[in-house]
Structure formats: C-alpha cells, structure tokens
C-alpha cells in the first residue's frame, strides 16, 4: 500500500474513541500490526485499487504529538490491487485503514523497541499510539478528478503569490533605503540580541512560538545594497518548518516568533544571527547583514 501524503514518522489524529461497556478485542492487521477497532461499523470498506481518505493522530500517551487535521488536504492511501507487487512493509496507519469501514476509528500501538531509533520526544516511553479514522473511499476516477481540481486550485494560489513579487520587492527596497538613511524612526525595533525589525502589518491569527510549525513567505536581500539572494514568492510556495528547532538561521527563529499569523514584516539580521563570518557563498558574503521581508502565512 502506497501512501501519498508525507508526514514525519507516519501521522496521527486525536479522535475520541467510542466508549463501550466491554474492552474491544485486539485485532491483527494483514501485516502484523495490533490494533483496536473502537466502532466496528458495517459501512463501505476500501476495495482493491480504491483510495482511502483518513485522519489520524500520533500520540505519546495522552499527549497529541501530531494531527493530520493541520494539513490542507486530507491524507489518503491507495489500496493495492490484488496481486500487485509491494515495496516493503506498509506503515501501521496504511495497513489498518485498509481494514476499516467508513466512519470506523481505531488505535494502533507500536512498540518503540521495534523501530531503528527512538523518535524525538519518545525517549522515555515504550510505545507510539496512532488514532485513525476512515472518512471516505473513492474509486480511481473520482480520486483523479479530485486531484485535478486540487492541483488547479493550488496553481491559481501559486500564480497569485507570484504576482505579489514586484510589490514585495518595492516594500523591502523602500524599507532598506529608509533604514540606511536613518529614516525609520519608531518603526524600527530592536531585540537584545541585535535583531532589528519593522512590522508592516500586524497579524491577527495565532502567535508563533517555539515548537510550532510555521509557513512563511520571504524575500531575502543583502541589507547593504538590496541585492536579492532568494525568495519564495518566485516559487509560489511558502516554506514550512518547526520554529525554534535550529532548522533556520537564528535570526529567523527569533524574528518569526515575534509575529502572529498574517503578519508582514522586515527582519534586519546581523551576521552573527545569520550566516556569520563564513557567509553562504556565492550569494551571501561573510559578515553580511541580511534583510528579509517575511509574511507569516500559517501557524500550526
């Protein structure tokens, strides 16, 4: 069974299991995963070759680590056709979804010791729990029609984002000119680390914070002369990353955490919070101060 939506370690959704008077029996999936079906409905089940749409939680005890509800698109897997070759063992979520009826919710427990290494956050526990519900089953034709509509929607959104590039570029260049001329006044704020920033639009959504996943559009340039070195607006897609985990430069981890979802700002990042004395050749020289126009698209 092939999964089409990528997510770390598989995935998870926190669904309330149906309360029953007696403890549900533990079942074993086709590929040996133990699970409990909390509902045992008699609705439609996935047929070979169909596409099963589901939601899921990954849990550490009672704590939800990840939910597929944060994804724009409902994840799905294709049920293998009879006799089709399989590449490796399917994930527990994939395997169990194939055995549910629409509306069924189930819990799969994975022994940590069966994994090559313990995932981050699970060092002091013995198992990973996945709660999963089958929400819809489509045949191949209906699935392809849905994917085509989704692709068209995503392309329209990307085109809209690309069209914003000239305005974003002008805003950053104007801000940089005012910065170099000392004309920003009270608009320019500075943190204890030396990060400077200008808020163009206050966000009204969720506050960004360390540990949350954020999606950000950006336009990056050298503060000295405004030379562009990279921008997500040309690609039409924001970048998504966990904040405060060192996956971006320190100036980003600090600067994005100052914003709420929907905010637009310019970050002026000293070299020690950027790429340091070594820079990032050939576009970013050593010791360069960086300027980023950023738009916080989403906080998860």
Tally of individual domains: 2
Arithmetic mean pLDDT: 88
Determine the number of helices (DSSP H or I, runs of at least 4 residues).
Answer: 4
Biggest sheet details:
8 strands, antiparallel
Compact summary:
The chain is of the alpha+beta class and 300 residues long. The chain has helices at residues 92-97, 140-162, 165-180, 250-256, and strands at residues 2-3, 26-28, 34-37, 51-60, 63-67, 76-78, 105-111, 127-138, 189-190, 196-201, 213-222, 228-231, 239-242, 264-269, 290-299. It has 2 domains: 2-145, Chitinase A, domain 3 (Roll), CATH 3.10.50; 163-299, Chitinase A, domain 3 (Roll).
Q: Can you give keywords for this protein?
A:
300 residues, alpha+beta, Chitinase A, domain 3, 7-stranded antiparallel beta sheet, 29% strand, disordered N terminus
Q: Could you please describe the fold and organization of this structure?
A:
- There is one protein chain.
- The chain has 4 helices and 15 strands.
- The chain has 2 domains: 2-145, Chitinase A, domain 3 (Roll), CATH 3.10.50.40; 163-299, Roll (Chitinase A, domain 3).
- The chain is α+β, with helices and mostly antiparallel strands and 300 residues long.
- It is elongated.
- A hairpin with a 5-residue loop joins strand 11 and strand 12 (228-231).
- The strands form 2 sheets. Strands 1, 2, 3, 4, 5, 6, 7 and 8 form an 8-stranded antiparallel sheet that branches.
- 17% of the residues lie in helices and 29% in strands.
């Amino acid at each position: 069974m092939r999964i089409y939506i990528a997510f770390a370690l598989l995935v998870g959704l926190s669904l309330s299991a149906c309360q029953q008077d007696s403890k549900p029996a533990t079942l074993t999936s086709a590929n040996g995963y133990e699970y409990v079906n909390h509902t045992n409905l008699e609705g439609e089940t996935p047929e070979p070759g169909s596409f099963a749409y589901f939601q899921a939680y990954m849990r550490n005890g009672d704590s939800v680590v990840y939910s597929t509800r944060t994804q724009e698109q409902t994840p799905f897997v294709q049920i293998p056709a009879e006799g089709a070759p399989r590449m490796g063992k399917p994930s527990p979520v994939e395997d169990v979804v194939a055995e549910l009826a629409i509306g069924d919710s189930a819990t799969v427990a994975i022994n940590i010791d069966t994994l090559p290494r313990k995932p981050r956050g699970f060092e002091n526990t013995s198992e990973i729990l996945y709660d999963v519900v089958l929400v819809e089953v489509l045949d191949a034709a209906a699935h392809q029609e849905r994917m085509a509509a989704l692709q068209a929607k995503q392309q329209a959104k990307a085109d809209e984002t690309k069209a914003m590039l000239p305005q974003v570029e002008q805003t950053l260049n104007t801000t940089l000119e005012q910065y170099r001329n000392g004309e920003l006044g009270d608009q320019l704020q500075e943190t204890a680390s030396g990060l400077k920033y200008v808020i163009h639009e206050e966000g009204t959504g969720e506050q960004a914070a360390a540990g949350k996943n954020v999606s950000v559009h950006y336009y990056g340039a050298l503060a000295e002369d405004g030379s562009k070195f990279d921008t997500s607006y040309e690609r039409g897609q924001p970048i998504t990353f966990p904040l405060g985990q060192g996956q971006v430069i320190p100036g980003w981890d600090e600067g994005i955490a100052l914003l709420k979802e929907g905010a637009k700002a310019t970050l002026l990042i000293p070299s020690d919070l950027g790429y340091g004395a070594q820079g990032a050749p050939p576009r970013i020289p050593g010791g360069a101060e960086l300027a980023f126009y950023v738009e916080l698209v989403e906080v998860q």
